[in-house]
Amino acid sequence: MRFVTHSHRFAAAIIAEDPALQARYEEFTGALAAITDEDLIDDFLRRKAAHALRRTAFKSLTPSINGLLKDRMLALPGWQAEVDIFNDPAAVGSTEWRLDFACDGAFCVEVAFNHGEAIAWNLLKPVLSCELNHVRKAVQGKLGIYVCATDAMKTAANIDSASGSYEKVLRYLPPMMNQLTVPMMIIGLEPFDSFKISSRAEVVRRLTVLDGSWVGRQVLLTRDDHSQCRGTVTGFVPAAASATGMPQIAVQLSRGRTEIFDQKDIRFLEPLAP
Q1: ∠ CA 18-119-161 to the nearest 5 degrees?
Q2: How confident is residue 136, by pLDDT bands cut at 50, 70 and 90?
Q3: Sheet strands (E) in the chain
Q4: Domain with CATH 3.40.91.20 in the chain
Q5: Per-residue DSSP letters for 24-50?
Q6: Average pLDDT of the chain to the nearest whole number
Q7: 195-197 and 258-262 beta bridge pairing
Q8: Is the CATH code 2.30.30.100 the one for domain 206-271?
Q9: What's the confidence (pLDDT) of residue 53?
């Protein structure tokens, strides 16, 4: 998986100056980066089939991301999953006081794909785990890591539009500077190279061949910059007849406007139900 990062309160500089923190940070980011597109597709289809047997709803790739990351982190010595922040009878066992991952003496990690209104609380969890507190701790971290999807990833993974995003989290940091006292790396997961999950919870592979079979069909087109448009394919130009040397389609968009797309500019092309 690919991702972008933002350093809050000089977290990146602190990590770079501490070999032990650097090693632990690279363990976590290495586990993220090692999750391949095929790993995600296989896990998603397996989970989807299980839900189909139970006749329960299933749409997003987030359970696969969470599950695959958990498997990889638990294979690393020193890392724990679903960790209680506090070692106190009043708080132990309550999911409100729990981190997704932790490495004692190093990092406290929250992986958040839930509603955007939970961003402030999710950001505070690593702070609670790293700062001194009147309640006895189960783990003591030094820095936080907050993982979420970028806006483009939300679309690519069919994550609910109301969920928080990397871009929104960054907007929370300045007004919460006095509350978020712990250095923290904010990690935004980026879209996949070879596939996406459609609104019908189907795996859509990246477009490799553009031909005339799309003419007359209503489509959802995802550009290479991950922006999207809907319309009807009204024409096809083969590479030999195209001014750019690439196959092209004409798509009639809203209000009758027609736009021409080269194959190289199209990342995904999905048929829409009539």
Answers
A1: 125
A2: low
A3: 3-8, 79-84, 98-103, 107-111, 143-149, 184-189, 195-197, 203-205, 218-223, 228-237, 248-252, 258-262, 266-271
A4: 3-194
A5: HHHHHHHHHHT--HHHHHHHHHHHHHH
A6: 91
A7: unpaired
A8: yes
A9: 94
- Which amino acid belongs to residue 108? C
Cα–Cα nearest to 265, from 225, 213, 238, 231 = 225
CATH 2.30.30.100 placement within the chain? 206-271
Q: What is the pTM of this model?
A: 0.90
Task: Name 143's bridge partners.
Answer: 107
Q: How many CB atoms lie within 10 A of CB 266?
A: 21
> Under 8 Å CB-to-CB from 227, ≥6 apart: which residues?
none
| Digit-coded pLDDT (tens) for 105-134 | 899 999 999 889 899 999 998 888 877 665
What is the pairing mode between strands 79-84 and 98-103? antiparallel
**Mean pLDDT lowest for which of 25-29, 171-175, 223-227?**
223-227
CATH fold label, 3-194: Restriction Endonuclease (3.40.91)
Which band of pLDDT confidence, cut at 50, 70 and 90, is reported for residue 97? confident
Q: List Cβ neighbours of 166 (8 Å cut-off, separation of 6 or more).
A: 4, 6, 148, 149, 150, 151, 153, 186, 187, 188, 189
State in Å, rounded, how far the first CA of the chain is from the last one. Answer: 34
Segment 80-85 shows an average pLDDT of: 86
Phi and psi, residue 35, nearest 5°: -75, 115
